[in-house]
Amino acid sequence: MRKIKLHIIYTIIALISLNTFSQKKDFKGYRIESDSVVFTFDARDYNKFTQEHTGQIHDFRDLEIENVVVSGEFNLWSRDHWKMKKVDDYIYELKKSISDFTDEFSWEFKFVINNSLWAEPSKNDYNTAKAVKNGKRIRGIYNLKMYTAYPSKTGNAIFKLKGFKDAKEVILAGSFNKWNENLFKMNKTETGWQLNLQMKPDIYQYRYIVDGKWIEDPGNPYKTKNEFGEHNSVINIKEYTAFKLRGYTDAEKVILTGSFNNWNEQEFVMRKMDYGWKYVIPLSGGKHHYKFIVDGEWITDPNNTVKEYDGNGHINSVCMVK
Fold first, then answer.
1. Tens digit of pLDDT for each residue in 274-318?
2. Per-residue pLDDT tens digits for 41-51
3. pLDDT for position 137
4. What is the pTM of this model?
5. Cα atoms found within 13 Å of the Cα of residue 252, Cβ hemisphere only
6. Neighbours of 275 (CB within 10 A)
């Protein structure tokens, strides 16, 4: 697996879709709806459970369920913080904002029954991983795995590799999937190969693996040198972000300015609305400072309590894109 050091960053705006999306392939234990992760436990999906303290595995069918909790790397394997709601006789669910998760590509998790029993997924489930304790794999024990970048027909990034029609297999690998050499298999098309992914806003590096050979994307001019003396292609996933200034309806002109446009005082002229003023721009993931210029007067956003000093004695409003 080729892990890459970042030297130079170039950017390219990927196709952005703000519509509701769904996973191309259903993963066991969760689904992603728009900007939320919905954890789903269905008692009918499990045949075995593990006693946490003894490690003994028992038959699931005779278990009387009192409560179910989502426990994983994202909540330090807590047994009580992420309690699920009972939907029917078999199903429990818990909805979380995708912004609650960091930039890690994947998270391992389990369902805890009655505060002490681990529901055991099958090793044949698509999204499973062997459980590890103190750096060693635990025999016969598996965790479910949640991915924050995944194939989706309406994904916000379209990867296309033209040609290579005689290739037997093409894999997409990059910083968004920890350079996994097997996970993201591309689909063959009339012109070559394609895969749509849903990804969080950020700058990513990637390469294609064509029948085992690593290559950069010949259709993408944005690239950076890697530690092997070759190049990785670079893609910048941006998210359309709406800036709104409420009030000031008597103003003649309002400008949006910030770190994202080098504090340009003329570029982003806001549009007048019934409630005030609005401007929408695509932004990369991360922190952005901004202000409004109302008829020549610079002001922070009165409806945003998050503000920071910029190091030059100025206070700016802060917008976080995740």
1. 999 999 999 988 899 999 999 999 999 999 999 999 878 889 999
2. 999 888 888 88
3. 67
4. 0.63
5. 3
6. 11
